[in-house]
Write a structure and sequence with these properties.
- The protein is 32% helix and 16% strand.
- By secondary structure, it is an alpha/beta fold.
- The protein has one domain: TIM Barrel (Alpha-Beta Barrel).
- The chain has an 8-stranded parallel barrel, surrounded by 5 helices. A two-stranded antiparallel ribbon has the order 1-2.
- A hairpin with a 2-residue loop joins strand 1 and strand 2.
Length: 364
Amino acid sequence: MTTSLFSPLRIGDIAVANRIVMAPLTRCRADPETLAPMALHAEYYRQRAGAGLIISEATQVVREGLGYVNTPGIHSEAQQAGWALVAQAVHAAGGRIVAQLWHVGAISHPDLQPGGVLPVSSSPYNPGDTVHTPRGKQPRVEARPLALEEIRALVGAYRHAAEVAKRAGLDGVEIHSANGYLLEQFIRDRVNRRTDEYGGSIANRIRFTLEAVDAAIEVFGRGRVGIRLSPVTGANRCPQDSNPQATYGALVEALDARGIAYLHFIEGHTGGARALEGFDFAWARKRFRGAYIANNGYTRQMAIDAVAGGAADAIAFGRPFISNPDLPRRIERDAPWAPVDTAKLYTPGPQGYSDYPTLEGSAA
């Protein structure tokens, strides 16, 4: 029997009503003082609870993980209270939501760091380009390598963040190991030049990611932990691994052995071309026994065909969810998708955030 994009699914221990996933979307609207979500966030996510599963915007596991102005954290009491508001709103609307756990590593700047210190990475590394700080756009700087004891402390921070998510009532967590952020700065051999147990071999380079996953499993159990991976993306100017198939293939096998809920794969270049050379995504789909969530440039028909043909268990949509709070309904009815107001993607307040109408609202 053909599986429908609109049919129920179990993603690990999380039962979802359909196979349309809301991908993480950074929107830079957290409370400027506490970096906590607010009632505004609860309303935004409530509006989108028609998704089978919502993956929250990326949330830094420690204050030092901040890379963009006013992105929310998930490590303090105030942030826990904010995420509790979100969880309650989504659940009241019949939805499910997991928190994406994040540390940007070198994709930061001293202006965003407590005390103005250098950002951190696996090795001395400057990704180049600029970053928006409270002083405006600034050129990125060379990050310093983490010491062994700092890596171990960060594994504890991932565990603590998962505990905060659980206390807030969220349904699970996703480890953000994609898009050139800290964990991927360890995975890729053209960034990671360490000579200790976190560098050199593939097993060493994927160690930090797996330890973060294991820390989350200790809190939530394997059935409520997922991960986001981007084997071939050039996001954040992160240099490509010399052998993505071997490196990310070993990571997929290790994740499968842990029995986690899902893999969330960016197929190609994040927000860009679906260039699939360098990694066999179909192999990963077959090799991993949990749910496979596909992401990157899917149209309505591509999503329907991918799930019906067994290429994926679910499809994650990003930007379409910004301007279409009822995207699953629009997909099911083959209704038009509203365009995004790009000028308001990262501005404070409800404009361009929680004020997009539903189909019924548009008609009215």
